[in-house]
Design goal:
This protein is an alpha/beta fold. The protein is built from eleven helices and 18 strands. GO terms for molecular function: oxidoreductase activity.
C-alpha cells in the first residue's frame, strides 16, 4: 500500500515528505495505522548523526495507532487493537528480557538501521528499501512493525496522550524512579524540563522526594515543572547546586537527572556539581553527534564521595510492565498527561514543530496524522 511519511535522506538533511510503499505484514509483523506521533529530540539527533545506522530512514519513534493487519504467528495483537509503539522491542526471552531489563533486549540491535528483526525492510521509496527509526517510523501514516515493538492498550484510553508512552513519559519517569533510585525524603535535581525532564519531575514526586529542583533556562518550562510537582525551579545548574546544598544542610542532591534535549561535557560537569555524598547522576540526555564526549568529571571527587554515574535508556523501564501502569496512573488522576502536549501539528508542519521545540515553546509537540 502507499502512505505518506517524513524521510531523512542523509546526515544534516531536513525531513522530507514523500510517498512510501509499505508491505503487507509477514510472519511476526504488524501493520499499524499511526494516529499520533510525539516530536522527540531523538528524532532531531537523527538529523545530525546515525552512528551504526543507515540513511535514508523514516523518522519518528514515539507513536500510537490502530492495528490494521497482522502476519502469521502474531499473538500479541489483533486487527482493531489500539497500540503504543515501543521504540525498544522486547522479545521476552533473551537474557535481558528474562531478567526484567527488556529495555536492553537483543532485538534492539537494528534500531539505527530500522530493519525489522524478521529481516524485512518496512518501507520502499523509489524502489529502495528503507528502515524505520527504532523500527517504528511514526512519522509515516502507516508503518510495518514487529510484534515485539507494539503494546496493546485499552480502547477507551485516548490515543493522543498514549503516544507519549512510547518514549518521553517512561523515559523521564523511570530516570528518576528506576535509574536514579529516588527514595522518600530525597532531594532530586532535574536538569532540562522539556518532554523528558517534566516526567522526571513527576517520577521523583511519585517516589517520595522531599525536594525536586527543576532546572531550565526557559521560564515557561520552569513554570510548567512547578505545576507537576517541582518544589523549586531555577535557570542554571550552578543555582541548583547552591540550592540543593541549602535544602540538605550542606550535603547536596541525592539524585540528579540530566534530561537536556542535547548535552555536552560542560553540561554534565555542571550537573554533577549538584550531587551530594553518595549521590547518583543519571545520564538520560544524548549529544547530537553520538561520538561527542559528554562526560567530564573529576575522578577524585567521584571516588571520595562515592558518586554513581548511571546511564538510562528508556528510563530503565520495562515497556510491557510500565506503559500499562503509567496509563493507569494517568487515568486515576495521579499522573499528568494532557498538559504535556503543548501544541499539535500536521505532518506538513513537522519542521515548525521542531523549531518550536528548539525555541523552548513546547513541553511536547504532537504530530496528528490525518489532521
Amino acid at each position: 500500500m502507499e502512505t505518506t511519511g517524513a524521510v531523512l535522506r542523509g546526515e544534516g538533511d531536513q525531513y522530507e515528505l514523500v510517498t512510501l510503499q509499505v508491505g503487507d505484514p509477514g510472519p511476526g509483523e504488524v501493520l499499524v495505522e499511526m494516529a499520533y506521533a510525539g516530536l522527540c529530540h531523538s528524532d532531531e539527533h537523527l538529523r545530525h548523526s546515525n552512528a551504526g545506522g543507515r540513511y535514508p530512514i523514516v523518522g519518528g519513534h514515539e507513536g500510537s495507532g490502530v492495528v490494521l493487519a497482522v502476519g502469521a504467528g502474531v499473538t500479541r495483537v489483533a486487527p482493531g487493537d489500539h497500540v503504543v509503539a515501543s521504540f525498544l522491542p522486547a522479545c521476552g526471552t533473551c537474557r535481558w528480557c528474562a531478567s526484567g531489563r527488556s529495555n536492553l533486549c537483543n532485538l534492539g540491535a537494528t534500531i539505527g538501521t530500522g530493519q525489522l528483526p524478521t529481516g524485512t525492510w518496512p518501507f520502499r521509496l523509489d524502489g529502495e528499501e528503507l528502515g524505520a527509526f527504532c523500527m517504528v517510523g511514526a512519522f509515516a501514516r502507516h508503518s510495518l512493525l514487529h510484534e515485539a515493538s507494539v503494546i496493546r492498550i485499552h480502547p477507551w484510553l485516548p490515543l493522543d496522550t498514549a503516544a507519549l508512552m512510547a518514549c518521553s513519559v517512561p523515559t523521564g519517569w523511570g530516570s528518576a524512579v528506576y535509574a536514579g533510585g529516588t527514595r522518600p525524603g530525597d532531594t532530586v535535581v532535574v536538569v532540562g524540563c522539556g518532554g523528558v525532564g517534566a516526567n522526571a519531575v513527576q517520577g521523583a514526586v511519585h517516589a517520595g522526594a522531599s525536594h525536586v529542583v527543576a532546572v531550565d533556562p526557559v521560564a515557561f518550562r520552569r513554570e510548567f515543572a512547578l505545576t507537576v510537582g517541582a518544589t523549586h525551579a531555577v535557570g542554571t545548574s550552578k543555582e541548583a547546586a547552591a540550592l540543593a546544598r541549602e535544602l540538605t544542610w550542606g550535603n547536596g542532591a541525592d539524585v540528579v537527572v540530566l534530561a537536556l534535549g542535547s548535552t555536552d561535557a560542560e553540561s554534565t560537569r555542571l550537573a554533577a556539581r549538584c550531587l551530594g555524598k553518595g549521590g547518583t547522576l543519571v545520564l538520560t540526555a544524548l549529544a547530537d553527534v553520538a561520538s561527542d564526549v559528554t562526560l567530564s568529571l573529576q575522578g577524585n571527587g567521584v571516588t571520595a564521595y562515592e558518586h554513581r554515574i548511571q546511564g538510562a535508556l528508556f528510563g530503565s523501564c520495562n515497556a510491557h510492565r510500565d506503559v500499562p501502569m503509567l496509563l493507569r496512573l494517568a487515568e486515576e488522576g495521579k499522573l499528568e498527561l494532557d498538559r504535556l502536549v503543548t501544541r499539535r501539528y500536521s505532518l506538513d508542519q513537522l519542521h515548525q514543530g521542531f523549531a518550536d521545540q528548539a525555541a523552548g515553546e513546547t513541553i511536547r509537540g504532537l504530530l496528528v496524522h490525518g489532521g
